[in-house]
Amino acid sequence: MLTSSSIPSAPLVANDSDNKRTHLLIHQSARLPSLTLMVTNLDASNYPVIRVPAGLNTKDHASVQALPQSDKLEPLMFDRILCDVPCSGDSTMRKNIMIWKLDGNGLHSLQVRIPKTELAGLSSRTVNASLYNMFVQASGIISSNIYRKDDAPMYRRGNRWLIGVCAFNCFILYPGVKAYYIWRNRSRDQIWDAMTSEQKSEYLATTKDRGNRRLDFRFAH
Predict the structure, then answer these.
(1) Vertex 53, ends 48 and 54: CA angle to 5°?
(2) For the chain, which ranges sit under pLDDT 70?
(3) Does residue 153 have a cis peptide bond before it, meaning omega lies within 30 degrees of 0?
(4) CB of 57 within 8 A of CB of 124?
(5) Which of 41, 65, 135, 164 has CB 3.0 to 4.6 Å from 22, enough for a Cys bridge?
(6) Which residues cross the membrane (predicted)?
């Protein structure tokens, strides 16, 4: 959108399936007006094919204006595509409760279909920005080491390892992390309560500590 010329050489298409976010995007983009910005409110997994006159898909955008008029139409291929697909990472599943009700098991197929819309050319690039892919790849690596062929078909050894990992998380890791945060908060309370009001004011005014290093910071657990 920001170019040295008055008219950018290529369009920018932004899409969101949510009506409210789409209107917000249009409102915010008014601050930086562009002749080549198009905002759509469509399902990205079934994005319609945009047909343009033949020749507009050329990489040499400077020569587009010199192309002869043609009645032949061809699908518009994007140079770059950034897919911010719905995420099903740990924090999303905990914070966005409605994702269980609205998407359910269909979330996986949606996350897979969006990058496969084939709107990019052969020499183009599509970036899928989602933690979901990282979880899938990590789980694939872990499962290939837990469920081994020499343990098939009952996978007793692999299941014992999984039960052990779950037990470690429930009875050691989670209680240990909570106990650590409680200990850190109590230690800072002792230091903070031992200070006078003048010392507290001086600390707040002169300290170079930031974030969780500050004495007045308390961990939420």
Answers:
(1) 105
(2) 1-8, 55-71, 88-95, 97, 99-105, 118, 120-123, 129-132
(3) yes
(4) no
(5) 41
(6) 161-183
